[in-house]
Amino acid sequence: MKILVVDDDEEIRKSLSDYLHSKNYEVYKASNGEKACELLSQNSFDLVFMDIKMTGMNGIETIKLLRERQIPVIVIALTDFNEVRIEKIAEAGFDDFVEKPINFKEINLKLELIKKYFHFYKSKYKYYSEYAKSLTELTKKIKDYEKTKDDLIIEAIQLLYNISEYRDYETHDHTMRIGWLSGKLAQKIGLSHSFVSEIQFAAPLHDIGKIGIPDAILLKPDKLTSDEWEIMKQHTIIGYKILKNAKNPILKLAAEIALTHHERWNGKGYPRGLKENEIPISGQIVAIADSFDAIVSNRPYKNKQPYIEGFYEIEKNAGILYNPELVEKFLEMRHEIENYYEQK
């Protein structure tokens, strides 16, 4: 067998190496974990005797690195149990241990045992190495698949944006502004990073249900009749039905938003008349974003209003149409919002 002795104590390193030489083993020495890793990465060894407590990279750190790199070698710890518990030795990845001070009879017994089961050890580490290689390849394939899947989802969402915008007076800029406003408000109230990202992508689909509304109603430049208004309100339900069976979290959130962004804090919204926190937080957020943008943007039936009017309308309806706590946070972003709109 080809053996590596790793110990920062020169006397122990020399005495163990000399003993192994006397037994006709091919022996190499390393004074620390870093040197051991270098030798093991460049050469094939059958067995390593390694001290646990070394300066620099200790034995626990070194064995963990060797196992991470899937180097197929048997490693026996040299330790006294004042340094480390036996459970930690096993958990770290050592195959066995020898107590200090070193007893050469025990070393010899370990060597005979290893020779007896040498094929088992080599097969085990060969299997681990092949398994790790396969796992690495599989992980890469999964990551590639996930990237492809994510790209397809983003592309599908973009196509949905285009569909939503195609039949409506609302432009691409409008849908993107709703996404930006919703993401910023979600961030402002301390929602998770993942939710902020999801609502920024999902919010622009809030009105996708309008593709199911007749042109005569959807594009009518005049005020809608009561019957026409009842049909228009159905866009919330249509949008929900389009998106409700989606598995992707962005599209699931978009379905929730499509259904609830016209619900109102006082319970007088539609389609279900939800009130206060019966309304999902996504719907509460998009309700503010959509209303503000509608006020400060041009429409076929009205001219855009100054930003001050938009903020005033949102503030005036706090606790009536909108969650007052969300309104407070929204108004705190006044200058950031104005700057964003000026740059668009």
Please render the helix and strand layout as text.
Elements: E1 2-6, H1 10-22, E2 26-30, H2 33-42, E3 47-51, H3 59-68, E4 74-79, H4 86-92, E5 96-99, H5 104-116, H6 118-166, H7 172-188, H8 193-202, H9 215-218, H10 226-232, H11 235-243, H12 249-260, H13 281-296, H14 307-316, H15 324-332, H16 334-343
Throw out a few tags for this protein:
16 helices, Hypothetical protein af1432, 5-stranded parallel β-sheet, 2 domains, alpha/beta, 344 residues, 60% helix, Rossmann fold
Protein described:
60% of the residues lie in helices and 7% in strands. With 344 residues, the chain is of the alpha/beta class. The chain folds into 2 domains: 2-116, Response regulator (Rossmann fold); 147-343, Hypothetical protein af1432, CATH 1.10.3210.10. The protein has a 5-stranded parallel sheet with strand order 2-1-3-4-5. It is elongated.
> Can you count the helices?
16
Helix content: 55-70%
What's the structural domain tally?
2
Shape: elongated
Largest sheet: 5 strands, parallel
Record field, number of beta strands:
5
Radius of gyration, rounded? 34 Å
CATH architecture of the largest domain: Orthogonal Bundle
Measure the end-to-end span.
72 Å
Strand content: 5-15%
- Poorly predicted regions: none
N-to-C SSE series?
Answer: EHEHEHEHEHHHHHHHHHHHH
Structural class: alpha/beta
Q: Order of strands across the biggest sheet? A: 2-1-3-4-5
Mean pLDDT: 87
Q: Going by CATH, what is the homologous superfamily of the largest domain?
A: Hypothetical protein af1432
CATH class category label of the largest domain? Mainly Alpha
The name of the CATH topology of the largest domain is: Hypothetical protein af1432
